[in-house]
């Protein structure tokens, strides 16, 4: 280290302040002094002094600064000195010159190492960078692969991290990075995933591993866009699979075998009650009230099979499900997955709520048992697969009469039975009930039992009453709609019912309908056939009281029965005829052509009901009205027909009148 005399320094300062010494003269003074001190030839005094003088514009206003000098001593040897100016209050400016050969050698080695490291980092296939933790994360260094990752040329400038991170994600990223500094250590690193913008505007996903160095941060960036796309596809695929499972009423679960942890794939599923994850399965369930006591053994067996490495299995047990008051029957299946060493790691389990199907199976079995007990007294028993229109079982005393070719389907058997075994007047009703589409519609409308009482022919062509009972249910195994048909002989029961019904509906003297019955039937017809033309006729016998008084009630009853017989002979099969009391009758003509047809029928009745009994002339007065012209219910028509009848009586009896004429 050399010193410069205070006199020279003061002289320089005085001269400089006086304006006599400029920058070049200042260097000349110093160079001349250093020439004397170092013994260098004067010819090398200026031209061999390398000074970064531009950094020190005005020494007088600089408290402390320094610059390096390269002085050539010999042809092949250079000496390096560092000239340092120090300002002091008492002495003014002091210059210290130090030989820095060793220092520069170290600096050159460091520069060389930095160049080698830079070359090395540029060859690493990932983006490396160093950034400040300011508001934009200014880049202090980045390698060439960093530029390449984001689509920039090697010469393009990337000023900060904010330039490349998606705007709506940068602030959160900066916040996350700063939060890690609290726990950072020499070996601490952390990772972040975020989206970035390439030079061409496209979006990529990157994974960056960060580590702190003082107040700065180092990072290694990897493009994970392809991985993210695969993850998205897998996620969408898994979502689609879960949706498919839900449509099949199934729920997926994962059972991690090493930790014995059962977890839900979808938190919205409820097969674990209020839990989304349960540890220590299956042992823990005994204390959690998840499994019904009667199913606990089966549940334990199901999970122990997984722990023992059985590749797949199934079970059915009662499990408590959220949002249900009771247990649900669960049908469960599992398949194991393995690691590279073929050790079981995970079990994929599907749970299916089988409660409804289980109840159907029980009902199905119970109903089959009931029908088995009823077969002994049945004429025939059939099982049809309505879904496939296929006859599956036929047990009947009339089987030999049904050709084999006609037994292949429900439709063919029903048609053949209607044509050959069912009474002609009941065939339409029979075929309506034994129609495949009708029965399917009944099932879907939750009408599971259909009956059809009809008349059939026995082997001797005698007519008898039979009842077909059709039970509709879903086969719990095939999910097809099946019809179980039981046909029973109800002739005795039905005949007795008809007798009782006839007694209730009929006039005991004549066998015609009574007042209550005809009123009900007329109202029903008017509701069902409101657009058709109908007629109601009131009939009263003339001179009947005289006959009763002269010949007695027995003779009068005989006349009433004779009149009933005459009326039956004149009425069509679908017309109605009733005796409503005394010598009054009501006739109801369904679906007549016109008013003229009514006149003809009234004249026919008037003529037929004119006869002599032991010198007493019996005739009839008739009153009629039309529906819907004169009314749309029995009571209205009855009143108007009665009014027309008495109008006829007042005008001489024995004849008829239509209301309103």
* Proportion of residues in β-strands: 25-35%
Radius of gyration, taken over Cα atoms and rounded to an integer in Å = 57 Å
- Fraction of residues in H or I helices: 25-40%
SS-based structural class? alpha+beta
Largest sheet: spatial strand order: 12-11-10-15-14-13
Supply the number of helical segments: 18
- Alpha-carbon distance between the two ends: 153 Å
Low-confidence runs: 1-21, 42-77, 86-94
Largest sheet: 6 strands, antiparallel
- Principal-axes geometry comes out as elongated
Question: Mean pLDDT, rounded to whole units?
Answer: 78
> How many E-type strands?
26
Summary tags:
elongated; alpha+beta; 661 residues; 6-stranded mixed sheet; single chain
Summary of the model, kept short:
This protein is of the alpha+beta class and 661 residues long.
Walkthrough of the structure:
The protein is elongated. The relative contact order is 0.04. The strands form 5 sheets. Strands 12-11-10-15-14-13 form a 6-stranded antiparallel sheet, with helices on both faces. Strands 21, 22, 23, 24, 25 and 26 form a 6-stranded mixed sheet that branches. 37% of the residues lie in helices and 30% in strands. The chain contains 18 helices and 26 strands. The termini are far apart. The longest helix has 23 residues, at 225-247. A hairpin with a 6-residue loop joins strand 5 (127-132) and strand 6. By secondary structure, the chain is α+β, with helices and mostly antiparallel strands.
